[in-house]
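#struct-pred
JK: can someone run the complex with pyridoxal-5'-phosphate? inputs below
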Amino acid sequence: MAGGAIYPVGYLDGAYIPAGDVRLPLLAPGVTYAASVFEGVRGYVDHAGKGVNLFRLGEHMERLVRSTQILGLDDIPSAEEMGEVTLGLMARNGVREDCYIRIQVYLGGDGEMTARGPTGLAILARPRPQLADRLANGIRCQVSSWRRNTDNASPVRAKAAANYLNSRLAGLQAKADGYDTALILTESGTVSEAPGACLFMVRDNVLITPPVTSGILESLTRDTILRRARALGIVDDVVERPVDRTELYAASEVMLVGTGMEVVPVVGIDRLTVGSGARGPITRALQDDYFAIVRGGRDAPAQWLSPIPDLKETPQ
Ligand SMILES: Cc1ncc(COP(=O)(O)O)c(C=O)c1O
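RT: done, structure tokens with the ligand placed:
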């Protein structure tokens, strides 16, 4: 959760408390056995400067509930309740800038690995400005020698803390070898995703992304890009299909998308240049559209934007 200082008000197990007091007990299986699931949500200042909207909050909370079901975490609040609690936290912090929120459901208790409860909910947030240089100039990636977790071992469809060991190993290797991040292949050798983002490529003016059965998180940014690319008609076709490693080398554009990553051009892979070696026109068009959408400057489904309310309108 890299970024600026954490906002002073946090949330833990039913109460808004000082952020520094949001801590999990060491013996909890949520810590020892990584029996915990989470969401990362971004907030963006409205294009008219009127306030801050959380992007696709409701669907992030629905994915969080699905993740708890896969991990067998019982008795959690509903998606709606967790959304309300999150908005209440941001109101209490008086947030007026671009920001990022981490919402975590964890297994508490005293150490039983297969326990289904007690479960807890922890939320912290911090400012998160956009990284203009990375968005404009792109990043370089290494196809990792680590393979993506398989669905029958550690399902990536759940946004589970445990899955990020796999992401971490790939990320560590990429950084040690001088790259910005990794691209991870499935056990069968097709392209899956990056440690914390999904992948799109452009070939012959067709936008292509691996399917949800390629060991990826069912990303909301991926969904946004798929819908927007189809609506904008900027490519001849938009396709979800398995992607071979060498297609990445043959692509005219590659990009990574995710809540944290946003829409970032990939300009090099395995020391080979992608396309022209600079941000391509389709990536640029999708970035421009995405940033207009998240800031409420272009038509998007109303439920995609959840405004942070004034504190006085928030249940105390
Ligand atoms: C492994 C992984 N894949 C993809 C994504 C992108 O998902 P989303 O667009 O819902 O943030 C994330 C999180 O940002 C992630 O952690």
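RT: quick notes.
The chain has a mean pLDDT of 96.
The helical segments are 29-32, 57-71, 79-92, 132-137, 164-176, 220-232, 245-250, 281-294.
JK: thanks, will look after standup
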